[in-house]
Each structure stands twice: as C-alpha cells, then as structure tokens.
Fold this protein.
Amino acid sequence: MRHALSAALTYNLPSPLKDHIGSAILGGWSVDTIITARSATPVNVTTMRITVGGQQIDQRPDRVDGVPLYITDPSVPGGRRFNPAAFAAPPAPPAGGVARQGNLGRNALRGFPISQFDLAVRRKFKLTERLTFQFRAELFNVFNHPNFADPVSRLSSSAFGRSTSMFGRSLGTGGDGGGLNPLYQIGGPRSIQLALRLQF
C-alpha cells in the first residue's frame, strides 16, 4: 500500500444559549469524525497448473507484451477490470523438467483505493455529580461511497479481473463464518447505529 491516511476529530459544540436553562437544553453536544483513505493494494494474478501427480498448484502467468493490463468497462464494479488477454499460462515443462513461474512480477497490478467518512453525534446528560448518561448516533460511510474489494485474481475464473463484492464483505461475514462484521467495518454501505451509555 503506497499511501494511507487516517484522521480523527472531536469537537464539543458550544451551547448557543448561555443561561442555565438554555445551556441545560441545548448544551452537552459533541461531534466525532473519522476519515480513512488509502491507495489500492497489490493483486497477484495466478494461473492453475496440474502436475504429473495430479496436484493443483498456482503459478504466476506470463505477461503478453503490448497488451494493456486494464480495461475501462463501465458495466463492472469500479469501472475497470483486468484484461485477460494480457496474460498467458507458462508452457508446460518437458517430461521430467521443472515448471517455471511466469514472467509477470509480484504486485504488478492494483485493486481499488478506499475512502470513507464516519460521523458520530453525541449528547451527555449529567444526572448527578458522578452519574452521566450519554446518547450517541453513529453513522458509518456517511456519503455511502462505494468501496470495492480487489478483483478476482485467478486467471481461470469466469469472474477474473472483476470485483465481485464490496470491500467490507471481502473481510468476512463475522460470527461462525469468521472475519469482521461488514456493517461496522470500513468499506461497507452506509449504516447507522444508536447507543445509550450510562457512566458512573
């Protein structure tokens, strides 16, 4: 990943009314923001080869000279896909020979960049000297910016070169399926949660 940015800001909003009653009604509000942005991560294209013993192994393909690596395609997520014509499986080794990796370098292709703006609005109510009550409304991906997972990298796949999910889903589904819950992870659709918190 070439570039990454994370920034957070918390601001306690001043009450528009300074008298005791106005401050009690309109005071205690705060805003929290988190901004996350990063450039695209590398994607390694692989092709499958079956060995003499029937074992399946992944290897890098050869790069076809003069053919562009990417195709602009408005019909696919992100508007861009890998060009399958830019890659070729290395020739099979001669009998008794050793298979070679293709000449496509590692990290030669890139997926999609990620950017997201999260926002929280909260209000604190002071009940007693030591007891406070807080209400929070948290909005993830406020602008509902689409963030796509890396394109499928296996050359033999029918979905090769295209992203098949949002980035949040590519991290797993949470629970028994493993991974992180996509609702509260970067790269998902806009989501909102409300919270009540008692501090003592």
User: Anything to note?
Assistant: The helical segments are 20-26, 167-170. The radius of gyration is 25 Å.
